[in-house]
Amino acid sequence: MVNKLKEITAIAEKRGFFFPTAEIYGGKAGLYTYGHLGKLMKNKFEWLWKCYFLEENFWEIEGNSILPEAVFKASGHLKNFNDPLTECKNCHFRFRADEIIEDVLDKNAEGLSVKDMDSLIKKHKLKCPKCGSQQLTKVEWFNMMFPISIGAVGGKDVAYLSPETAQNPFLSFKREFEALRKKLPFGLAMIGKVFRNEISPRQLFFRLREFTQAELQIFFDPSEIDTHTEWKKIAKYKLLLQTVKDRKGDKVKAVSCEEVNKKLKLPKLYVFYMQQIQKFYLEELGIPKDKFRFHELSSEEKAFYTKLHWDVQLNLESLGGFKEITGLHYRTDYDLEAHQKHSKKELSVYLERKKKRVLPHVIELSFGVDRNIFALLDIFFKQEKERNLFSFPSAIAPIEVGVFPLVSKDGLPEMTKEIYGELRKNHISCFYDEDGSIGRRYRRIDEIGVPFAVTVDYQTMKDKSVTIRERDSMKQKRVKISELAKHLK
Ligand code: ATP
Q1: What letter would DSSP give residue 354?
Q2: pLDDT tens digits for range 369-416
Q3: pLDDT band at residue 107, thresholds of 50, 70 and 90?
Q4: Is 38 left (phi over 0), alpha (psi -120 to 50) or beta?
Q5: What mean pLDDT is reported for the chain?
Q6: Is beta strand 452-456 parallel, antiparallel or unpaired with respect to 401-405?
Q7: Of ligand 1's atoms, which has the minimum distance to the CA of residue 326?
Q8: Ligand 1 pocket, 326 CB below 6 A?
Q9: Can you list the domains of the chain with their CATH numbers?
Q10: What are all long-range contacts of 345-349, with beta carbons under 8 Å and residues at least 24 apart?
């Protein structure tokens, strides 16, 4: 496992997926840069996400990463967006109290009070993970937002770097409701950078201090939570679930949407988005079924703003098991209500057709883009006898086609570059390489997950055909250049 993490990280850094930021100065935990391949892959993931989730009357907006303090007073983040912190009195290392409890005692510490954590630390004589001292300070809550001050007013105009994109759609809700012809439901998505001052980011690329979220806030009339126009079509679809009860024995059950609605009492609208999300992972991203599950959070574990909270977890071998990648949150009218109260601006809306006024409720899809990228690297990584490869589906592969002349002479490079230009005109992302043996060039593109290689050889000169090699099977076939783009697409 540790080896797989090392292996993937080494390839990611060497080939340009991601690497530590400011490496030449020693880097900073939780800060990573996307290299050229990582950025291409991230763009593709975000594009796929938008194409898939932005259905009728769902739109993307772009708000700010810097938001005034008033926003976070109202949203509850100033008071509640905390992690439990303790400090070693000997070496002054500061770390998360819940993590040490979880690591050493193998006990879920989410939802414990600071008092409970203090008692557990004392009772089990837990030690500083760095120097081994038992002299630890009392556990305190540490707010994870980065404060900043706006303008040259000497810290008086306080703002924060946003720890989630969600507040922007809430702040824009009233304007967009009016602009979108005053109808519910409607969705506001935002893909953007968010910032969390994680106490001790571990697991390399998995827990970051600056990362990207793709979030979708769906505003709806609360009286319609147990309806969806497409319900009949999805009722028999089986969701892969781990309820709180199923944690014992680590069970996952396949349960139809109908049963989830009737037996687990999850409302149809919420179940509909569970189904959408599962299909996105299994069908669009090609995640194997046995690596996917919805994981129910208990009332102590849920975020302070949610009434229903299930996470998507994927089984990541390099991190030793199922890890949270995405969340599906029923935020009720928590945020609109809070902003209405604090801003003293009316945020309820009048629905002309129904002749009634409502304060909409919200279901939120919250994807961490970076964790999804990492998960794709983990899940599609394969080591074979003679090669490493990422067997990414084309939809998320950073580059789709490698284009090679068999040798770099006799007019083959010129002909290959023409083909390369044609493919680019057809919006196929490709990569040209003429250095080294053809076998080595194939290995190199396998290692970055390119699904196809097109090779121009001497026969191309005679009959205007090229070979296409498919990455996973390594099988080759000949295709006419005139049909190449169509064939690849
Ligand atoms: P965790 O329990 O791992 O700290 P969270 O429950 O606080 O995560 P949410 O607030 O629900 O996470 O955020 C939604 C998504 O944002 C997560 O599912 C995850 O993909 C991503 N995310 C959250 N924190 C981080 C982080 N520090 N680094 C990278 N991605 C993150």
Answers
A1: T
A2: 999 999 999 999 999 999 999 999 999 999 999 999 999 999 999 999
A3: confident
A4: alpha
A5: 95
A6: parallel
A7: 18
A8: yes
A9: 42-65+156-381 (3.30.930.10), 82-143 (3.30.40.230), 399-488 (3.40.50.800)
A10: 345/174, 347/173, 347/174, 349/174, 349/177, 349/182, 349/184
